[in-house]
Amino acid sequence: MTTAVTPSYKLAKNNENLNHIPGSFGLPIIGQTFQLVNDLYGTIDNQYKKFGSVSRFGLAGFRGALLIGPDLYKEVYLDKDKNFSAEMGYMGSLGRFYKGALLLRDHEEHKFQRRMMQTAFKNEAMKGYIGTMGPMIAESIVDWGDKGQLLFFPAIKQILLDVAARIFVGLDESDERAAKLNKAFLDISDGLMGIVTKELPGTKFRKGKIGERYLKEFFGSLIAERRAGDGTDTFSYFTREKTEDGDYFSDEDIIGHMSFLLFAAHDTTTSALSHMLYHLGQDQALQQRLRDEVMAIDKPYLEYEDLEKMPLMEVAVKEALRLHPSVMMMQRRTIKECELGGYKLPANTILFLAPQHNHRMEEYWDEPMKFDIDRWLAPRNEHKRHSFSFVGFGGGAHKCIGMHFALMQVKNFMHQFLRQYEFHLADNFSNKMQTVPLPKPVDDLPIVVRRISS
Ligand code: HEM
Q1: Residue 319 and residue 392: Cα distance in Å, rounded?
Q2: What is the mean pLDDT of residues 72-94?
Q3: Ligand 1 mean position to 327 CA, how many Å?
Q4: In Å, what is the CA distance from 193 to each residue of 14, 205, 210, 267, 372?
Q5: Which residues of 101-113 are buried (b: 16+ CB within 10 A; e: fewer)?
Q6: Is residue 3 classed exposed, middle or buried when 0-12, 13-18 and 19+ CB atoms within 10 A define those classes?
Q7: Does the Cβ of 393 fall within 6 Å of ligand 1?
Q8: Pick from 428, 308, 311, 453: which is nearest to 376 by CA?
Q9: Segment 391-442, tens digit of pLDDT
C-alpha cells in the first residue's frame, strides 16, 4: 500500500511579504473588509486607479495580492505552468467546512475528482432533471398571483432548496429528511460567516459543524443503497461513477462533493435570479420581450430541446451576473514564485480575484453600468472582446461545472413565471443592494405580482 505524501506547498504558511507591491493590507486582521462590504466595486476600482492591476490587499484575516483585469484572470484560470492552488487559496475560508470539495483540489487530483461528476451533468441526466424541475416550479408559484406583494429572495430560495433536495439528492419535499438536509446545509452556510472558528457553544461555527456532521452521516448512510439502485438524482449518479481503473470513488469523496454541490448550486442561482428580477421589474418593455420568448415555446413545461429557444433569457441572466456576479471574490495561492502583471509574487501568496470589476471595465463593455442584454447579441457581441472579460462562472479547470444546470434552472423558472405573471418592484423597495457575503437586494426584493388574464 502506498501512502500519499502531502506536497510541501500545502504545508507552507501564507506569504505576507509583499512590500515590493503597491497598496496596503489595510487595518490589522480585517484589512479592507469594511470598505468592501460598503462598496465592493468602489473599493476595487479605487485600488485599480491608485495602484494598477496588482496591489497589496487585506480581506477577512488574509493578506495577499488583488488582481484586476481579464489578462491576469486568464493567466490564473488557465494556469499553464501549474503555479496556482485553488485548495490553498480557499483553505482558510471554504476549507473550514468543505475540505476535499472539488474546488479545493488542485491539478491532477482535481481532474481525477471532476470525473466523478461527468455523468451527472451530461445530456441524458439533464433531460431527466428538466422533467422534474418544470412541474415542481409550477406548483411552487401557483398562488403567487393571490399574494399581490411578496418577497422574492426568500421565496426563490425555498423553491431552489426543494428542487435541489429532489434533483440532487432524490428526496421528495414531503420526506422529513429533506427539511433536515436543508437545515444542515443552511447552518453550514451560516457557519462559514462565523467570526469564531472554534466549536464553542452558541457559535455559528458550532452550528455549522453539527450540520457538516449531519450531512456526512446522511450521505454516508445512503451510498450503498443508491449505488445498487437506478436513481437518476445527482447523488445516485455520483455513487455509480467509476475511476479509469474501474473502481468506485471513495465514500469520503462522494460525501465531500455532494455537500459542496448543495452549497455551490444554491445561493449562486438564488442571487442570479434575484438580480435578474430586479432589472426586469424596472423595465416592462424588456420583461415583455422575454415573455414573448417564453410564450413562443407554447408548452406547459420546457423540454431539454427548448432551452436553445431562449437566447434572450440566457443573455438576460448573464447580464445580471455581469453587473452582480454571485461569486463576488475568488481566491488562489501561488505554489511557486511567478510573475503577474510585471511583479514577482513569492510562493504561497494569496491572490484575490474580484470578477465584478472585470465586468464593468470600459475597455470591454460599452456603458458598463447599464443593464443592456443586447450587448451580448450580434452585431455587438461585446463579450467577445476578451475571453475573460466575463468570468461570472469562473474559467479554466475550475470553471463552474453546474453552469448549464444553473441556466436550465433559470430558464425553467422564468418560463413558468413570465407565462403566468407580470410584475414590478414594490413601492417600498429600498433599491439598496448588498454584495457581501452574498450579492442580493438588501430588503429581499419586494415585488408586486399580477396574474396575466388568459
Ligand atoms: C448562477 C449560478 C452559478 C454561478 C454564478 C456559479 C459560479 C461559479 C464560479 C465562479 C465557480 C468558480 C470558482 C473559482 O474558480 O474559484 C464555480 C465553480 C463550481 N460550481 Fe458553480 N455557479 C453557479 C451554479 C452552480 C450549480 C447549479 C452547481 C451544481 C449543480 C455548481 C457547482 C459548482 C462546482 C462543483 C464548482 C467547482 C468546480 C471545480 O472546482 O472544478 N455551480 N461556480
Answers
A1: 10
A2: 97
A3: 9
A4: 21, 8, 15, 14, 33
A5: bbbbbbbeebeeb
A6: exposed
A7: yes
A8: 311
A9: 999 999 999 999 999 999 999 999 999 999 999 999 999 999 999 889 999 9
Cβ of 258 less than 6 Å from ligand 1: no
Distance of alpha carbon 295 from alpha carbon 445, whole angstroms? 25
Mutate to test the pocket of ligand 1, among 261, 393, 411 (most ligand atoms within 8 A of CB): 393
Q: 327 vs 207, 257, 355, 433, CA distance in Å?
A: 24, 19, 8, 15
What the block records as the C-alpha cell of 165 is 433536495
Burial of 203: CB neighbours in 10 Å, binned 0-12, 13-18, 19+: middle
- C-alpha–C-alpha distance, residues 444 and 155, integer Å: 9
- In the block, residue with C-alpha cell 470600459: 362
- What is residue 51's predicted lDDT score, i.e. its pLDDT? 97
Instruction: For ligand 1, say whether the CB of 330 is within 6 Å of any of its atoms.
Output: yes
The pairing of beta strand 62-67 with beta strand 350-353: parallel
**d(CA 399, ligand 1 centre) in Å:** 7
All structural domains of the chain? 8-96+109-451 (1.10.630.10)
Q: pLDDT tens digits for 230-243?
A: 999 999 999 999 99
Between CA 149 and CA 162 the distance in angstroms is: 22
CA–centroid distance, residue 51 to ligand 1 (Å): 30
Q: By C-alpha distance, which of 297, 235, 287 is closest to 261? A: 235
Whether the CB of 321 sits within 6 Å of ligand 1: yes
Antiparallel, parallel or unpaired: β 421-425 and 149-151: unpaired
